[in-house]
Amino acid sequence: LEMLQGKRVIVTGASKGIGEQMAYHLAKMGAHVVVTARSKETLKKVVSHCLELGAASAHYIAGSMENMTFAEQFVAQAGKLMGGLDMLILNHITNTSMNLFSGDIHLVRRSMEVNFLSYVVLSVAALPMLKQSNGSIVVVSSKAGKMASPLVAPYSASKFALDGFFSSVRMEHSVTKVNVSITLCILGLINTDTAMKAVSGIINIDASPKEECALEIIKG
Predict the structure, then answer these.
(1) Is 171 exposed, middle or buried (0-12, 13-18, 19+ CB in 10 A)?
(2) Is 155 a catalytic residue?
(3) Which helix (H) or strand (E) holds 164?
(4) Closest by alpha carbon to 214, among 11, 18, 5, 12?
(5) What domains sit in the chain, N to C, each tagged with a CATH number?
(6) What are the Cα distances from residue 9, in Å, to 57, 59, 66, 147, 151?
(7) Theoretical Cys-Cys bridge with 129: which of 11, 20, 85, 215, CB 3.0 to 4.6 Å?
(8) How many CB atoms lie within 10 A of CB 98?
């Protein structure tokens, strides 16, 4: 893991849960970190803790991934702050809860835009920098993107889309000799506040610890 010392890393959805824990692990390894989420106040605390833990540098840029212009500009700003990019960790999702699908098209559209389309926008914006550094894209996905389950139709659709898109691009990179690796992380139930709230009273299985999960993602 010393390999990550001095590496320049973006983590999205980093104000809580797995994203926050990944930022802390990267900080301990001495990486340069730029974190993003919607909450400026929470991100300030995350950055402050990253610096305490030994990050080579730590910055935050707050904004919503519903806004594709923000997504694109965020990558450019992060690249400027760190002088390039070695790793893009895509981890954010829109607010989601477990419900029967009631025909809410707006929810489907928002899930697809935030959980899928913004990932594409971010990766396209980051690719020139990642090509220069022979870097990597890490996509945090879910079992719900490999296997259908009830009560999460819009979320599941967006995660299936991630798998289809990034698995396809990974093959293209191999054929065209683009030296940027793409890793899809397929997670089960993790004990983040968001996940625990969503499954409360619906699913009764043991969740895995978010700290360990975050470390495994970074280790690849």
Answers:
(1) exposed
(2) yes
(3) helix 153-176
(4) 18
(5) 2-215 (3.40.50.720)
(6) 10, 11, 22, 30, 34
(7) 85
(8) 16
Catalytic residue among 24, 60, 119, 155: 155
pTM above 0.85, yes or no: yes
| Predicted local confidence at residue 96, as pLDDT | 84
Residue 201's pLDDT is 55
Burial-class residue 163 by CB neighbours within 10 Å (0-12, 13-18, 19+).
middle
pLDDT in tens, 59-107: 999 999 999 999 999 999 999 999 999 999 999 999 888 899 999 999 9
- 60 strand-pairing partners: 35
Structure tokens at 2: 């010393």
* Residue count of the chain: 220
